[in-house]
Amino acid sequence: MSKKYIIAIVAVYCIIVAGCATSRLPTDNIPRYALYGTNYLPLAPVCDAQDIVLEYDPFTQVLLLSKKTHRLALRVGDPFALVDGQLHYFDHPAVLRDGTIIIPESFNRGILQRFFMDKPSLPAQAKVVQPSSIKRIVIDAGHGGKDPGAISASGLREKTVNLDIAKRLAKLLKDEGFSVYLTRSTDTFVPLSVRTATANSFKADLFISIHSNANRVRSMNGFEVYYVSPAVNDTERGFSAIGKEIPSVKAVELVSASPQLKATLWDMVYTHNRGESIQLGRLICRSVAGVLDNQILGLKGARYYVLRGTDMPALLIEVGFLSNSREERLLGDGLYRQRIAQGINEGIVRYVRELSFAEKEN
Asked: Cα dist. 159→17, 71, 104, 156, 190 in Å?
């Protein structure tokens, strides 16, 4: 081997090593602040550098960070955060200083870069879907028994349509391997409080309530999905839930926890669930649009009791308008109801698949 060839190899090696040694993270150029014996960074530019969506409520001082399938909830002053529904502690809290929210370096490297930094994609054949944390699903057929719900001009009752679609959806989900529970499987009346209590005691991972719509404007038609409205106060819900077990948090971690801490954690859980509900709702709307030749009205916030009272991501689905003559005929057709169930099922499966990939990456 010639001396020139050896020198060339050494030169290339040195360039590669130098490149590796000088590789920088997206946040390396952001200025640091020395505070409480550690380094802090301003949160806004940290999120910008990593394409993280940042939302902040100055009244509650709750921060919401999201990117792809990841969600993080954090309150200024607290040394913990809920990341994808899991509780994580860190050494120093986020701080509001001179109107700027700053975070400790350890939080940036230990939490944000771990969960939110883009990673090299694997070849498609190397990706294997792992079992997801979504295993239990409660399907709620709206109304029932003495409560018929909406009634069409021809006498088709909402409670009947809801139950049929709920049972079809439950079968599809069971075939996918989920554990499914129906709040009612017959024409019986179930109070709203019992429906939510059932979902919570079942420790459901998702709650889906099936309904049919009606409106005085007969031309109104379409499929729409509701999640718990941002107008619902999560802090108040958190204080009302102090005595309940917090999902994803070990009981031993809360033995000496104050009511304020428990309320804060519940606040974060509810906020996290809203984000997950929105993501699930979007996927269901897309999937249903692919199987129904009908208008998709989209995703909306609402204050429905069954959405406010559940401790997991929850949706209320209005499958169509019984007050509309065309949709009344469609909803009276078993094949059409089966297509609705298939669309909802596909949306849930897509949501779980995305969540599985996110969990696998972590």
From this structure: 68, 35, 53, 9, 12
Alpha-carbon distance of 241 to 4, in angstroms, equals 74
Joined together, the tokens standing for residue 7 give 């020198």
**Distance from C-alpha of 190 to C-alpha of 132, rounded to nearest angstrom:** 30
- 101 burial type by CB count under 10 A (0-12 exposed, 13-18 middle, 19+ buried): buried
CATH topology for 33-115 is: Copper Amine Oxidase; Chain A, domain 1 (3.30.457)
**What predicted TM-score, i.e. pTM, was given to this entire model?**
0.66
DSSP per-residue letters across 69-90 = TEEEEEETT-SEEEETTEEEE-
Whole-angstrom distance, CA of residue 11 vs CA of residue 342:
60
Question: For the domain with range 136-361, which CATH number is right: 3.90.420.10, 3.90.1150.10, 3.40.630.40, 1.10.340.30?
Answer: 3.40.630.40
The answer, yes or no, to whether residue 208 has pLDDT greater than 90, is: yes
What number is the average pLDDT over the span 87-106? 84
- The rounded percent of the chain whose pLDDT value lies above 90 is 43
Give yes or no for a contact between 347 and 280, defined as CB atoms under 8 angstroms apart. yes
Instruction: Report the mean per-residue pLDDT for the chain.
Output: 81
Residue 248: closest CA among 307, 313, 181:
313
361, pLDDT greater than 60: no
Q: 19-51, pLDDT tens digit by residue?
A: 444 445 566 778 887 887 888 888 888 888 888
Helix (H, G, I), strand (E, B) or coil at 147: strand
Residue 108 DSSP one-character state: I
